[in-house]
């Protein structure tokens, strides 16, 4: 077995193996390993990126939901406020209208009373004139118009008072 | 036919260089053929690498990833500097050890013996021998792997760190650790060379044996040319990477 070892063949085989190692490292192992590592890194980066985007999207979603609920609350508050304001305003308007109506009614009553007094006075004057007319027809001669008027007035006052 | 002297290598021709006559044996020619096959395959299989692996790219990735994985599991975080070397050794050994599979095709000599046709007698005599059956190649592989131990030890641990590895796990082990450098060369060489030579000899005996042993050929070929060949390649790479890992860890 030992005599089979040949220094030339041994050196040739060592050289062959070193050449094969250098060539295969350059052609096969380095490029393929680098290629796969690059791909692994790319996949890792894209997964990380997707994860980060997902987290960001969840955060945005939560933020929007909060904003939405806040807006809903604000809206309800505003509606309540507006309803209350409208109710108050309508009550005010009704109260004012009632007050005005009361004043108008009172004024109208006063006016009516005044008209009535005026009419009563006019009626009385006319009645006095009618009575005097009638009386002067009855007592044509001795009835002085001026002095009799006072008498009739008095009579009518008494009658009106009665 | 079988001469009983399978240990010897046949010198096919010799070249003159550096004032010496260098004999070129059939195992060196086989080594060149296997180198050419591996280099051509690695050129073909790494062309047009796409992000999504399809077809041959998947094969390339499985092979490289598998080798990287084995080296990662034995060498830890220094795997990147060693994976190309052990990958080369593994691929070379797998192809070299399994090359004897092609002996299933009858050689010209056998064809002449069977058919008696004179055409085959004049054919060139070249039978495929696994180059690892030659002790020179096994020794070359083992010595390269053992020489790598102090080199990587000094590179990653410094001279002192490498020398300290002789005292592990206890100072008493110093002589055994020194002996290891010799015995590991012997064990790596002889394990590889012995297994492949034995397989080769047994297969030759079967090919040239009587008719009733022929049915054994497929089973024996599957065992020696495929299973044992793959196992020896793996063991060689695994052990030599373990030896280096012991020093650099």
Describe what is shown at a glance.
The complex is a heterodimer of chains A (162) and B (249). By secondary structure, chain A is mainly alpha-helical.
Q: What is the mean pLDDT of chain B?
A: 82
Helix content of chain B: 55-70%
Order of helices and strands of chain B: EEHHHHHHHH
Number of domains of chain B: 1
Main sheet of chain B?
A: 2 strands, antiparallel
Number of helical segments with 4 or more residues of chain A:
2
Q: Could you give a short account of the major beta sheet of chain A?
A: none
Structural class of chain A: mainly alpha
Individual helix count of chain B: 8
Count of DSSP E strands of chain A? 0
Radius of gyration of CA atoms of chain A, rounded to a whole number = 62 Å
**Net shape of chain A:** rod-shaped
Beginning-to-end CA distance, first to last residue of chain B: 51 Å
What is the averaged pLDDT score of chain A? Answer: 88
The first-to-last residue Cα distance of chain A is 173 Å
- Label the structural class of chain B: mainly alpha
Q: Could you describe the 3D structure shown?
A:
The complex is a heterodimer of chains A (162) and B (249). Chain A is mainly α and 162 residues long. Chain A has helices at 7-138, 145-161. Chain A has one domain (2-116). Chain A has two helices and no strands. Chain B is mostly helical and 249 residues long. Chain B contains eight helices and two strands; from the N terminus they run ββαααααααα. In chain B, strand 1 and strand 2 form a beta hairpin. The termini of chain B are far apart. The mean pLDDT of chain B is 82. At the A-B interface, helix 1 of A face strand 2, helix 1, helix 2, helix 3 and helix 6 of B.
């Amino acid at each position: 077995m030992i005599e089979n070892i040949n220094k030339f063949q041994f050196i040739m085989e060592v050289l062959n193996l070193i050449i094969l190692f250098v060539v295969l490292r350059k052609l096969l192992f380095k490029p393929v390993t680098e290629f796969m590592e690059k791909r692994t890194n790319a996949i890792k980066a894209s997964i990380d990126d997707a994860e980060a985007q997902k987290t960001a999207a969840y955060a945005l979603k939560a933020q929007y939901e909060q904003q939405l609920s806040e807006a809903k609350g604000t809206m309800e508050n505003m509606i309540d406020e507006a309803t209350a304001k409208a109710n108050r305003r309508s009550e005010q308007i009704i109260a004012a209208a009632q007050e005005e109506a009361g004043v108008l009614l009172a004024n109208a009553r006063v006016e009516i009373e005044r008209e009535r007094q005026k009419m009563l006075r006019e009626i009385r004057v006319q009645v006095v004139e009618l009575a005097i007319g009638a009386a002067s027809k009855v007592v044509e001669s001795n009835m002085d118009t001026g002095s009799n008027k006072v008498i009739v007035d008095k009579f009518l006052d008494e009658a009106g008072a009665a | 036919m079988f001469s009983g002297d399978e240990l010897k290598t046949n010198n096919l021709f010799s070249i003159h260089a550096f004032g010496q006559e260098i004999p070129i044996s059939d195992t060196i020619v086989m080594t060149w053929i296997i180198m050419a096959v591996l280099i051509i395959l690695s050129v073909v299989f790494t062309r047009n690498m796409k992000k999504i692996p399809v077809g041959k790219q998947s094969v390339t990735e499985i092979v490289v990833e598998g080798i990287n994985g084995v080296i990662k599991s034995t060498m830890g975080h220094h795997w990147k500097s060693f994976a190309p070397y052990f990958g080369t050794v593994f691929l070379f050994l797998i192809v070299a050890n399994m090359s004897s599979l092609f002996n299933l095709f009858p050689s010209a000599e056998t064809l002449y013996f069977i058919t008696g046709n004179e055409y085959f007698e004049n054919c060139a005599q070249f039978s495929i021998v696994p180059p690892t059956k030659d002790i020179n190649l096994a020794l070359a592989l083992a010595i390269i792997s053992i020489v790598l131990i102090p080199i990587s030890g000094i590179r990653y641990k410094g001279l002192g760190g490498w020398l300290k590895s002789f005292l592990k796990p206890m100072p008493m082990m110093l002589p055994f650790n020194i002996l290891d450098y010799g015995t590991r060369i012997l064990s790596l060489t002889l394990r590889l060379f012995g297994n492949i030579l034995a397989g080769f000899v047994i297969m030759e005996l079967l090919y040239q044996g009587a008719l009733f042993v022929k049915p054994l050929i497929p089973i024996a070929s599957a065992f020696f040319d495929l299973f044992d060949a793959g196992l020896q390649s793996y063991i060689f790479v695994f052990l030599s990477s373990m030896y280096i890992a012991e020093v650099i860890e």
